[in-house]
Specification:
alpha/beta; 5-stranded parallel sheet; two-stranded antiparallel sheet; 8 helices; 7 strands; 43% helix; globular
């Protein structure tokens, strides 16, 4: 899919036929021959993480993993933007945050519902599950506005419960989508936590 993204950056038919896959430094021609090259075309990547529990500036393993993946992509020479409901800048990190607005109304409404449920001695799990759904409805519009001048060549979305932002952006922009799956999240939530909207999570 990244090879297809690069082909779109090279409009000439002759160059399109010679399009090389160079994402990790190895170049492979359409004839099947391969060689290692330090010259890599720049790919504009959007890394989407819709998980409210993963702060890109945090210290938990998932936060460190997010920073490591995006840093590695930048060190390969690619332009990486991060879209996260925890939209604070990353000090000293080569990737940039696409938007500093954060979770927007999804964050505020999630907190409002959580406080109401707790105040009535009810399970606050529905608030945690509705928050990413509200983010799905809001974030793509904000992201598309920020991406208008420099749309990505491809999107990488870290799989998260109820996360749909990357897929929605892929359909709007018509670019490849790569899903990064680190765990069977629905099964994990059903086993170890209270999952109210399991059908929707699948």
């Amino acid at each position: 899919s990244l090879r297809q993204a690069q082909c779109r950056r090279w409009p000439s038919p002759s160059r399109r036929r010679r399009c090389l896959w160079t994402f990790a430094g190895w170049t492979a021609s359409v004839s099947g021959s391969a060689r290692f090259s330090m010259e890599r075309p720049i790919v504009r990547l959007l890394y989407v993480c819709s998980d409210f529990g993963i702060d890109p500036n945090g210290t938990k393993g998932a936060s460190i993993h997010l920073r490591s993946i995006t840093r590695a992509l930048c060190e390969l020479g690619h332009e990486v933007s991060i879209l996260s409901p925890k939209g604070r800048a990353l000090p000293g990190h080569p990737a940039k945050m696409l938007s500093s607005i954060g979770g927007g109304p999804a964050e505020a409404m999630g907190k409002l519902l959580k406080n109401w449920l707790i105040g009535h001695d009810l399970n606050d799990a529905p608030a945690r599950e509705l928050r990413p759904l509200l983010y799905n409805a809001w974030a793509p519009t904000v992201a598309l506005s920020a991406l208008r001048e420099n749309p990505p060549d491809a999107i990488i979305e870290r799989l998260s419960l109820f996360g749909h932002v990357g897929l929605d952006l892929r359909e709007k922009l018509g670019v490849p989508l790569i899903v990064e799956m680190n765990a069977p999240l629905t099964e994990e939530a059903e086993t170890y936590r209270s999952l109210q909207l399991s059908g929707l999570a699948r």
